[in-house]
Amino acid sequence: MYKTLRNIHLILGLLLFWVIMMYAVSAAQMAHRIRIVPVITERDVTAAPGLDARPLANELMQRYGISGEMGSATSGAGGYRFAITRAGGASIVTYDRQTGKVHLRETDTGVWGVLNRLHHFHGFHNETGVRNAWGWLVLFASLGLFALGGTGVYMWFRLHRERTIGIILLGANLVVSIFLLLALRM
Predict the structure, then answer these.
(1) Is the per-residue pLDDT at 128 higher than 80?
(2) Which residues pair with 92 in a beta bridge?
(3) Dmax over Cα atoms in the chain, in whole Å?
(4) Strand partners, 70
């Protein structure tokens, strides 16, 4: 039993390493307010006049290589506006129904922006399969962390020589965690 749990613990640790590191790096970026400087480009293109938002978004995605999920359109003077967002960037589309003129304001935040957005993506209700796959990966990582902790505590408990230092470390971790939870609530 011990050998099987040790192998599960090792495999889970190796599989979850990169996901945990991604969360650690993005959490450090947010906690220490490392500024993400976006690269903004603007351009005007044309599309057929009188299009609804979804067909326009599909045309822009095909013709200009824009990718992401389309947000809801808001009506304006003679047209509408919507965003197409993705991890690390967004395209704000402003469309004039009469002329077919499209103004694209594209923002790219690079790797820091991708990590930041991945930190916030959640669930399985997204329009794109990639974001839903990310949701499944996060679910696997969350459950895997519980299993990693459980197998680690079990293996530690089985090693009688290590119980004293383990109790000290677990107790210190519990005290620090409770202190931080209480301090953050104030």
Answers:
(1) no
(2) 83, 105
(3) 79
(4) 84
- pTM for the whole structure: 0.66
Give the integer Cα–Cα distance in Å for 128 and 118: 14
CA distances to 52, 79, 105, 143 from 40, in Å? 26, 23, 7, 38
Q: Please, how many CA atoms are within 13 Å of residue 102, restricted to the half-sphere of its CB?
A: 23
Tell me the backbone φ, ψ of residue 6, rounded to 5 degrees: -65, -45
Could you tell me if 175 and 169 are in contact, meaning their C-beta atoms sit under 8 angstroms apart? no
Quick check: helix, strand or coil at residue 91? strand
Confidence of residue 54 (pLDDT cuts 50, 70, 90): very high
- CA neighbours closer than 13 Å in the CB half-sphere of residue 91: 19
Total residues belonging to the chain: 186
What pLDDT is stored for residue 147 in this prediction?
Answer: 93
3-state secondary structure (DSSP) of residue 56 = helix
Q: Which of 96, 99, 102, 88 is nearest to 60 (CA)?
A: 102
81 in helix, strand or coil? strand
| Cα torsion angle, 118, 123, 125, 128, sign | positive
